[in-house]
């Protein structure tokens, strides 16, 4: 096992979770063939197949299942060790990587300011998270905590403070019939094409943010699927479909003259939550969660959880 490559292990872990070479490659920002090459190299080192490949599916061999059970906790421990050494090298503050979807709204900016005032020795990096992969950056340890649209039903992730509860907003082209409306009802989504989210995002999550049926069960015409918010807004401007957004994101993009933002009634409220890995309880992560709670608007009924 001499000369073991970390990238080979990352490819195996991504493939074990996705069970699809293409999706594993997108998670690692490499090609499908590169994932296959890394896996073959790892299997050569191990001396046996870890994955069964057919034309229809990918699954782990019994040896692959055993390897995954041993490797997962060890890989997480390795990342924790690196983070702790990095923090020690930087001093008490260390570093914090905060992911976000859509835009850094006023509340998140206030939380970042409060955190920075309290912990000036902690370097904070902001990382935008693709709309189609709300939880991947957390799992790949590219961010330490993330502000994402709810719901979150991932067993390895914990939802902390929840904020920004508002009606959904529908982004439509400025020339769309809905553009001049003060609001639209959820049942009226059946009258327009709704831009979807690429299937990298969990099905339950996509069902909330790009529904295929109205609350009454009427089918919603499907528009093109996108990976990023910017892709979606560009398609909206071209009148290729409408897109559901949270109010904070809509407010951030109101300067777009080619897009109108209309409140939607009749849907569950849109919520943003601060999410972290279940096994990540480092002081900077907890301190930032406290800053988020302490900067919540007074009318928000909330508590620090997780």
Protein model, in words:
Strands 4-3-5-13-6 form a five-stranded mixed sheet. The protein starts with 5 loop residues before the first helix and ends in a 12-residue tail after the last helix. It folds into three domains: 6-83, Orthogonal Bundle (Arc Repressor Mutant, subunit A), CATH 1.10.10; 91-165 and 271-294, 3-Layer(aba) Sandwich (D-Maltodextrin-Binding Protein, domain 2), CATH 3.40.190; 168-268, 3-Layer(aba) Sandwich (D-Maltodextrin-Binding Protein, domain 2). The chain has ten helices and 13 strands. The protein is globular and about 65 Å long. Helix content is 38%, strand content 22%. β3, α5 (106-118) and β4 (123-128) form a beta-alpha-beta unit. It is an alpha/beta fold.
Looking at this protein, list some descriptive labels.
10 helices; transcription; Arc Repressor Mutant, subunit A; alpha/beta; four-stranded mixed β-sheet; WH-like_DNA-bd_sf; 22% strand; five-stranded mixed β-sheet; 38% helix; WH_DNA-bd_sf; 306 residues; LysR_subst-bd; LysR family transcriptional regulator; 13 strands; globular; D-Maltodextrin-Binding Protein, domain 2; 3 domains
What is the gist of this entry?
This protein is α/β, with parallel strands linked by helices.
**Helical content, roughly?**
25-40%
Spatial ordering of strands, largest sheet = 4-3-5-13-6
**Uncertain regions: pLDDT < 50 for 5+ in a row?**
299-306
Query: What's the CATH C level of the largest domain?
Result: Alpha Beta
What is the total tally of β strands?
Answer: 13
Strand content: 15-25%
CATH architecture call of the largest domain? 3-Layer(aba) Sandwich
How is the CATH topology of the largest domain named? D-Maltodextrin-Binding Protein, domain 2
Dominant shape:
globular
**Subunit organisation of the chains:** single chain
* Alpha-beta content class: alpha/beta
If helices are DSSP runs of H or I spanning 4 or more residues, what is the number of helices?
10
CATH superfamily of the largest domain: Periplasmic binding protein-like II
């Amino acid at each position: 096992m001499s000369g073991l490559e970390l990238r080979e292990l990352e490819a195996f872990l991504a493939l074990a979770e996705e069970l699809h070479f293409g999706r594993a490659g997108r998670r690692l920002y490499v090609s499908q063939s590169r994932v296959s090459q890394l896996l073959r190299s790892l299997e050569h080192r191990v001396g046996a197949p870890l994955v069964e490949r057919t034309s229809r599916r990918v699954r782990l061999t019994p040896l692959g299942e055993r390897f995954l059970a041993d490797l997962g906790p060890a890989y997480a421990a390795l990342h924790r060790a690196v983070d702790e050494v990095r923090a020690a090298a930087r001093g008490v503050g260390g570093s914090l990587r905060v992911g976000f979807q859509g835009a850094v709204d006023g509340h998140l900016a206030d939380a970042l300011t409060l955190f920075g005032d309290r912990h000036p020795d902690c370097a904070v990096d902001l990382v935008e998270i693709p709309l189609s992969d709300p939880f991947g950056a957390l799992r790949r340890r590219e961010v330490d905590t993330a502000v994402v649209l709810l719901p979150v039903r991932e067993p390895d992730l914990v939802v902390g403070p929840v904020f920004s509860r508002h009606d959904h907003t529908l982004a439509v082209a400025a020339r769309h019939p809905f553009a001049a409306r003060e609001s639209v009802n959820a049942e009226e989504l059946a009258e327009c094409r709704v831009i979807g989210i690429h299937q990298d995002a969990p099905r339950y999550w996509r069902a909330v943010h790009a529904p295929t049926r109205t609350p009454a069960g009427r089918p919603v015409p499907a528009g093109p699927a996108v990976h990023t918010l910017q892709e979606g807004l560009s398609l909206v401007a071209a009148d290729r479909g409408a897109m559901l957004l949270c109010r904070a994101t809509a407010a951030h993009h109101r300067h777009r003259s080619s897009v109108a933002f209309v409140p939607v009634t009749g849907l569950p409220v849109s919520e943003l939550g601060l999410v972290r890995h279940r096994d990540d309880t480092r002081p900077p992560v907890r301190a930032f969660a406290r800053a988020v709670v302490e900067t919540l608007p007074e009318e928000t009924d909330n508590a620090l959880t997780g």
